[in-house]
Histidine ammonia-lyase
Amino acid sequence: MSDMSLAPVIVGTGPVTFDELIAVTRDGATVTLGDDALAAIDRAREVVDVLAAAETPAYGISTGFGALATRHIPTEMRAQLQKSLVRSHAAGSGPEVEREVTRGLMLLRLSTLATGHTGVRRETAQLLADLLTHDITPVVHEYGSLGCSGDLAPLSHCALALMGEGSVRNAAGELVPAAEALADAGLTPVELAAKEGLALINGTDGMLGMLVMAISDLRMLLRTADIAAAMSVEGQLGTDRVFAAELHAIRPHPGQAQSAANLTSLMADSAIVASHRTGDCNRVQDAYSLRCSPQVHGAARDTVEYAAVVAGRELASAVDNPVVLADEGRVESNGNFHGAPVAYVLDFLAIVAADVASISERRTDRFLDKTRSHGLNPFLADDPGVDSGHMIAQYTQAAIVSELKRLANPASVDSIPSSAMQEDHVSMGWSAARKLRRSVDGLTRVVAIEVLTAARALDMRAPLTPSPATAAVVAALREAGIEGPGPDRHLSPEIETAVQLVASGAVLAAAESVVGELA
């Protein structure tokens, strides 16, 4: 439900920020159109009204769409033109997408409307804001967008709700007809005017909203992956010397330095690490999955931050076709709706998720093999042979990592022509975004299993004690009901608890309560 206690997000002529998008999509913040946005909307509408009254055909205003753009539509048919466009394009199929995805879609379309480059009327934009504020969420389906000419089908299902048609979820999450939900909220459907149908559906908003949420999730997960790595290095009697700042300064990737600094602070004052800093330690180098954690996690960080730059540019964009240039009094066709810039980085991030999960799984597996775990019980079992310990938890990790490798296959190279070859090269950005959401979920689960396994191993190093930071993470797991080492018990609930602790940021918060904010 919308949270009236949160400050409303004011949509103006400037871009929506990452924090504002998260507030609306996940926290239920309400939405208000700023005065500057309303003024810009009015100026653009004046241009559209002039062109609509002219005898010269204008694409999207007095013509058909796509491959049907050559037909001039008479004035008396233009309202029907907009209705027909939305109804025909609301052709999605498959399961409903998540509420947060649809709210992101709606917010970002509203942001583009507010730039004054689309030509909608203020009452149409206001109704879209009202749907967000009243927590009325149109039903949007998994399939239907090719990521070019915008996320057409998903956005059309949202536009359909503005017309009082189709199905929505009300604030209680109930599936109801759009007309009923609008009436219950005291809202009136709009009768779409010239160009409005096209303006409501021609944007990269779905893929962009999912990109911003993925970036937010990955920023948190990569810091949590550093925590998991620190626990693994510590639990496997690895060295922290390879994380020294001077070693990473000679390969100056910023993400690598941040990750290494995190690992150093997380492992500080560990009695376990101190126990093997002696002359009789004959181990020269740790395995790559331990020693190279900053290089992998750091490269992932740098890729996420590049994606954030692209997302920031896209948030500052007005994506529509044709676009209204109000100061010049004209409307021009363009190709800004093509999703390639967003699609590429969505695919990049799926690669990141797969590789960070891969190194996490390798660190976990080392705990379970008695030939590599430096004195720990096989599979961290209480009574090996009778008990299997975390043997199958690693199987679960491995299954997820294998799936993530398949999801890392790029969607953006798989263009397929549409609209009678008028739209002959498309981005598949929506598909890239949908698979990235599954990748982020998979990474969350893999990191959670590493944290769960490493915590058990750290307990098994007693009476040696871990660092204060990693001890705080172990304590957080125990306080959440995950027991320490002992005979086998039903493991799935413990994995799910660990997943929730990672996804909610509780693992990160536990470590940061000791060392302060991680980079």
